[in-house]
What we know:
Blueprint: E1 3-6, E2 9-11, E3 14-16, E4 21-22, E5 27-28, E6 33-35, E7 38-41, E8 45-48, H1 56-66, E9 74-76, H2 82-85, H3 88-94, E10 100-102, H4 104-114, E11 120-122, E12 128-130, E13 135-140, E14 150-154, E15 159-163, H5 182-197, H6 201-213, E16 220-223, H7 234-244, E17 251-256, H8 262-275, E18 282-287, H9 293-302, E19 305-309, H10 319-331, E20 337-344, H11 350-360, E21 364-365, E22 370-373, H12 378-396
Parallel strand pairs: 8-9, 9-10, 10-11, 15-16, 17-18, 17-19, 19-20, 20-21, 20-22
Antiparallel strand pairs: 1-2, 2-7, 3-6, 4-5, 7-8, 12-13, 13-14, 14-15
Helix pairs in contact: 5-9, 6-7, 8-12
Bound molecules: MU-OXO-diiron (FEO).
Amino acid sequence: MNIPVKNNVYWVGKIDWDLRKFHGNEYSTHKGTTYNPYLIKEEKIALIDSVWTPFSKEFIANLAQETDLTQIDYIIANHAECDHSGALPELMKIIPDTPIYCSKNGVKSLKGHYHQDWNFNVVKTGDTLSLGEKELVFVEAPMLHWPDSMFCYLTKDNILFSNDAFGQHYASEYMFNDLVDQSELFNECIKYYANILTPFSSLVTKKIKEVLSFNLPLDIICTSHGVIWRNKPAQIIEKYMKWADNYQENQITIIYDTMWNSTRIMAENIAIGIQDNDNKINVKLLNLAKTDKNDVITEVFKSKAIMVGSPTINNGILVSVAGILEMIKGLKFKNKSGAAFGSYGWSGESVKIITKILKESGFDIKEDGLKMMWNPEPESIEKCIAYGKQFALSITH
Ligand code: FEO
């Protein structure tokens, strides 16, 4: 199935309805995903990106319905990650001499992936490639989100091919932003930003400003995952500018795991304390044993502050808590507060360990952690409520 985008531009990708885990187990795709290569059939024919490796043969068969493969003049590799370049080895067996346009780091990445000496042509920001009456303009976008990442822009049709940027893992038969459920769409967009782009936020802002400074008319953004932004494409750019600017909502998120419920009782009563204040701050309570980790990260992204709880086990913390803290550390959140809590039986190191990791991850620790021995008793429950209330006050005043 190919989909006309505008004039001689076609989506020639794959809707992967079944995908539930991406990057190994690193990213959950509750709604599947799409891989979005595009074919431009002007005087010259250019293919932008391809699909993930397992769909190589299907992609090539589909592409052959749109054009004689030997007539493809140029291949543009905006990004070497195998969800966008995975079909190149099969395709290049058929058209081995076709020039591949990519960034300098793109050559390194593609060679590193496939160990082939294809006909690479390095491009940098401002370079152009004529397709006849229209041309492609290249814009390097290093670390958005890999060193090799690149955008390109098709003149006269005013289309930005943004690769991963502005994408979402969202399978839909409709493929255009104005045709899908808006709530589903933006939930997937913010999850994608929170889990993938957060550490690169300063670069996101800089790159968007740079692209806007070119004053190029923009009718469509063709991303490499999810829907094509043809209706008010600036709306997703505006969202990215907001999300990149230390985004937060009026929310505290409590994330915890528990063994025999003591830490859960602490978490729930801390939440009562947070709600019991005049600041009207929202609280969300997420049990790590039962909540998808990428959904947790999305809630962390939205929060002013997080509170992290674990009982002590083997002088340490539960592995689910250690795992989410590792993700949080890597994502380099800014301008957020944190606190730790947890129950224990005898040694009780968990609160100290969590507090240390939160500090190392850049969180502002406003309150000492709260630890409790064995099951909380009524007096301890009151302490949890008071602790939640105090914490909420500390971040809202
Ligand atoms: Fe969609 Fe960076 O790959």
